[in-house]
């Protein structure tokens, strides 16, 4: 037997059985992290979720309160423009109008001589509401202690942190991002300083932010109401054409009142009235188009638009005029009797206007001319083009004091924002402009509109004497822009583990250094005495010193 006989003959290739490769199922890519799973267990009950939903925002608001109220009565002296607003607010609560004071009276006022105001009026160029609000603490507890000059403003700054968390949750549908937004605003230097000095701008910011929140609340409510009304008409066999006119929009009325109150603090609030009035109409047009209404644009402009105007603008005007009640019901305010003087009374078509309102109109003309003519140089003025990167922060207070060991320390209050927040927020704003153009996300559009209304009008007056601390009015929107980007970096629990882990690490490290920078800078925000050399180490840009 040969070897070839002993071995089985090999089958020809074409006769062999087909080879089937076994399909190997790829293991699913792991998603989320241990931290996500632990957090899900922590929020596994409705009670725990509710505790987090409200406990997180309240916690950052309490942190903000500590940073704003701690040692608030220091220094016991009028700081920067407190020389105007504190004394104006105090006399306003007593006279009903801002009264004049003796010249060079700041030291005597700080020492407790608070009743030396005259019966004659002072010429002021901002509406009264901000001073009524600023003076709440003094009205309740007296003006002898600087703490009460600033307490109402510190409260406004604290409430703004809480409102910002509610706005962020409405925008991003995430309590975590809402808490991050509140945390960033709570620990930022510009927000802290503007809450610790008795100026008008923090009240302006708070009222504008409340109005923005009300607009967001209306957006969801009115869209649902429109959808139900359109569906009911179609069920009844009626072609909706333009769609219904919605009168039941209480949040629009509330937004108008909030924006009107902001205008009654500073006139710059008028830009928010205009911007969000247009926004309300635009959002309604998009909602009508989404419902498939054939005449959606005409319905938004010609049918719902006038209704929205009636709900939104008149209440703003009424609230604004109401802020002048003290001036109107007394006879001592500046220009109060202007229209009664010979040659000033209106004739012709405006003769019917009450003399008090004619005088008030003249007051507004004079104040507007004053604002346009503010060109006097100031060592801490700042070009608006540098505001978003905190190019020239405002030094509001500086004094040399004894350290107690024979050396000299310095106290200062400087509105230097936390650089890690501001510079990152400026980059985030640029990214959001790109993202709006590409993806047209409504959240991005709303945030950028708030920023535009608060910032862009200042670019029309480059020759005016203006300051970086004006940015507090639109700082909530730069903060929201930053939080939007942080949310993208953070990702979600459904992301691949490697990406989610990296996102959590990046955001966690960033927030750690934000807090570290705030701890380092807090002495310059609260007037804590420090060594002059240490103070110089805080000036990261030449323009800061």
UniProtKB/TrEMBL annotation:
Its EC number is 2.4.1.-. Residues 1-28 are annotated as: Disordered. Keywords: Cell membrane, Glycosyltransferase, Membrane, Transferase, Transmembrane, Transmembrane helix. Residues 357-544 form the Protein O-mannosyl-transferase C-terminal four TM domain. Residues 1-19 have a biased composition (Low complexity). GO terms for cellular component: endomembrane system; plasma membrane. It holds the Pfam family PMT_4TMC. It is a multi-pass membrane protein. Pathway: Protein modification; protein glycosylation. The chain crosses the membrane at residues 51-70, 147-168, 175-193, 199-217, 268-287, 307-329, 420-437, 444-461, 467-491, 503-525. InterPro entries: ArnT-like_N, PMT-like, PMT_4TMC. GO terms for molecular function: dolichyl-phosphate-mannose-protein mannosyltransferase activity. It is found in: Cell membrane; Endomembrane system. Its main location: membrane. Residues 59-215 form the ArnT-like N-terminal domain. Belongs to the glycosyltransferase 39 family. Protein O-mannosyltransferase that catalyzes the transfer of a single mannose residue from a polyprenol phospho-mannosyl lipidic donor to the hydroxyl group of selected serine and threonine residues in acceptor proteins. This is Polyprenol-phosphate-mannose--protein mannosyltransferase.
């Amino acid at each position: 037997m040969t070897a070839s006989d002993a071995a089985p003959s090999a089958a020809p290739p074409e006769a062999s059985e087909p080879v089937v490769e076994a399909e190997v199922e790829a293991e699913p890519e792991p998603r989320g992290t241990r931290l996500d799973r632990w957090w899900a267990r922590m929020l596994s009950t409705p009670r725990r979720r509710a505790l987090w939903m409200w406990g997180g925002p309240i916690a950052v608001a309490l942190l903000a309160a500590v940073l704003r109220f701690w040692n608030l009565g220091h220094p016991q002296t009028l700081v920067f423009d407190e020389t105007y607003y504190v004394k104006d607010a105090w006399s306003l609560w007593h006279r009903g109008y801002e009264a004049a004071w003796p010249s060079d009276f700041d030291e005597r006022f700080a020492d407790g001589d608070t009743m030396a105001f005259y019966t004659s009026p002072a010429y002021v160029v901002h509406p009264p509401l901000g001073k009524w609000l600023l003076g709440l603490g003094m009205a309740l507890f007296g003006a002898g202690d600087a703490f009460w000059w600033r307490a109402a403003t510190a409260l406004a700054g604290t409430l703004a942190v809480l409102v910002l968390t509610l706005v962020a949750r409405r925008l991003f549908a995430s309590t975590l991002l809402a808490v991050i937004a509140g945390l960033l605003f709570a620990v930022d230097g510009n927000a802290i300083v503007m809450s610790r000095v008795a100026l008008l701008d923090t009240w302006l910011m708070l009222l504008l932010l409340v109005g923005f929140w009300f607009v967001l609340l209306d957006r969801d409510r009115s869209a649902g109401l429109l959808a139900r009304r359109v569906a009911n008409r179609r069920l009844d066999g009626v072609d909706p054409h333009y769609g219904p006119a919605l009168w039941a929009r209480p949040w629009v009325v509330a937004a108008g009142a909030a924006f009107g109150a902001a205008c009654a603090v500073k006139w710059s609030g008028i830009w928010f009235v205009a911007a969000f009035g247009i926004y309300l109409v635009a959002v309604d047009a998009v909602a009508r188009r989404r419902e498939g209404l054939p005449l959606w644009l005409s319905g938004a402009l010609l049918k719902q638009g006038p209704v929205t105007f009636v709900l939104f603008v008149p209440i703003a005007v009424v609230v604004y005029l109401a802020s002048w009640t003290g001036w109107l019901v007394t006879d001592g305010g500046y220009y109060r009797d202007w229209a009664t003087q010979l040659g000033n009374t209106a004739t012709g078509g405006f003769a019917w206007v009450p003399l008090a309102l004619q005088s008030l109109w003249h007051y507004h003309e004079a104040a507007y001319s004053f604002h346009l003519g503010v060109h006097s140089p100031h060592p801490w003025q700042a070009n608006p083009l540098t505001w978003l990167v905190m190019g020239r922060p405002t030094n509001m207070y500086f004094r040399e004091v004894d350290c107690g060991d024979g050396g000299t320390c310095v106290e200062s209050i400087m509105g230097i924002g936390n650089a890690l927040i501001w510079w990152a927020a400026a980059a985030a704003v640029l990214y959001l402009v790109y993202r709006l153009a590409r993806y047209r996300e409504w959240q991005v559009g709303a945030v950028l509109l708030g920023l535009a209304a608060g910032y862009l009008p200042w670019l029309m007056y480059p020759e005016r004497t203006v300051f970086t601390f004006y940015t507090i009015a639109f700082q909530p929107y730069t903060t929201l822009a930053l939080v939007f980007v942080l949310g993208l970096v953070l990702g979600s629990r459904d992301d691949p583990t490697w990406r989610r882990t990296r996102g959590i690490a990046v955001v966690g490290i960033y927030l750690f250094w934000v807090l570290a920078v705030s701890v380092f800078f807090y002495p310059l925000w609260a007037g804590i005495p420090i060594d002059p050399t240490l103070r110089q180490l805080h000036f990261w840009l030449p323009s800061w010193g």
